[in-house]
Amino acid sequence: MSGSWEAVIGLEVHAQLLTRTKLFCACATSFGAPPNTHVCPTCLGLPGALPVLNAEAVRMAVRTALALGCTIQETSRFARKNYFYPDLPKGYQVSQYDEPFSQGGFVEFEVGEGDDAVTKRARLTRIHMEEDAGKNLHELGGGSVVDLNRAGTPLVEIVGEPDLRTPAEAAGYLRALRDVLVFLGVNDGNLEEGSFRCDANVSIRPAGSDKLGTRVELKNINSFRFVEKALAGEIARQQDVLESGGRIVQETRGWDEKTSSTFSLRSKETAQDYRYFPEPDLPPLRLDEAFVATLRASLAETPRAKRERFVSELGLSPYAAQVLTQHPRVASFFEEAATLNLEAVTVANFIQSEVLRDVTTRGVEADFPVTPVQIVEILKLASQGKISGKQAKELYAKAKGTSASPAALVAELGMSQVSDPAAIEAACAKVIADNAKQAEQYRAGKTGVFGFFVGQVMKATKGSANPQLVNETLKRLLGG
User: Which of 17, 215, 297, 398 is the most exposed place for a label (fewest CB within 10 A)?
Assistant: First the structure.
């Protein structure tokens, strides 16, 4: 972007809550069922059907707001947001408008990586509850189906203030927000399935100005990478329009990945267009202090707080703390292993180097090939000198997918580390005798070949020799 312009970005995130049933009825919220199999008169909007508010959805929404520093309103109201669309069977969406259940709040996020990372904070306007719409399915053969399974799924809409200035900041904000929701257990963070969706409002203005430009909404962008690309493309488009003497029209636009450009969808509605009015079938929502206090006390530790604790209390590097807090189940697995009387850094290193490549995640759940107890037993065997570091990796591979005790596997496979001084001295002496040229080079001062001898001894002993004893013996024999 030219230095004469500044972008102003505000994000609206729709996050589906992980309840078993919908916001106002008992229909299941499971993803991937055949179209229109999880519907009832209430979510179909049939005459005479009345909504009943899902209490668990309220609890999840309030926990979300508390975790993001929002102020909880004691009384809030649901409203009807009127518009016509094929996947909105009632002709209106039940949402919250001028009396949401929470206001304010913020998201802390990082831009950049490593030592160059900068922590920033963006304010929130509010978080409110609403129901999701259905979904239009367009088939390859040309037909379309309106699937109402999703209609009525509980959402929180997290409305951000226009505090972001670059596409990179927007992506960092979204990643941090998704992490918080996943660690809370209220959302699975799945952008591809649409359970975490982002609408971006973006405008540009002359650098140094405090006046907002005409904003354009980018709708339902389903990946962090696309958010960055769509915002960059739209910012460039707006700059071209203004610099060529045109004017920006308030509208909703989509993102075309093939052309790397945005395209117009429709003119942007305003609040007046939606004709909001209080939902007559739902009473005001009242959240007393005791209810809020109970939820506040049950809040899970945020990913940021967990990373800071891993560094300050457990001695992990910032990078290791970041890796081990990318999913709540990974963080829990590490913490459980680290509490079993072993150095946390050793556990963290082994999980990063060996275990994570075999972990599969599904939303807030994850599958691990071993248990924390097995990992700690493997590492204890290595620290006690009963197996080598190389054998620890081999033992992990043998333990994967089993409930077997690593100690029992060591005995069964005859994998114990060789620590007999006489046996190691014999192996070292043979390697030196077989490589007389390299031995002369070492004794002449070319000490870099020492690693060659260590490798040859480990190869000869199939990785079972005690590395410390091998090093000591080789130095003694080569020095003599």
Answer: 297
- Average pLDDT over every residue of 351-357: 96
Contact (Cβ atoms closer than 8 angstroms) between residue 183 and residue 332: no
Using DSSP bridges, classify how beta strands 216-221 and 251-256 pair: parallel, antiparallel or unpaired: parallel
The residue to which tokens 């909404």 are assigned: 217
Structure tokens at 189: 């963070």
pLDDT per residue as tens digits for the range 45-78: 999 999 999 999 999 999 999 999 999 999 999 9
30 and 177 share one domain: yes
Regarding whether 193 and 54 lie in a shared domain, the answer is: yes
| Total domain count, the chain | 3
For 128, counting Cβ atoms within 10 Å of its Cβ (0-12 exposed, 13-18 middle, 19+ buried), the class is buried
d(CA 335, CA 317): 15
How many angstroms separate the CA atoms of 406 and 387, rounded? 11
Question: For the chain, what percent of residues have pLDDT higher than 90?
Answer: 70
Q: What is the pLDDT of residue 342?
A: 79
Model pTM score: 0.84
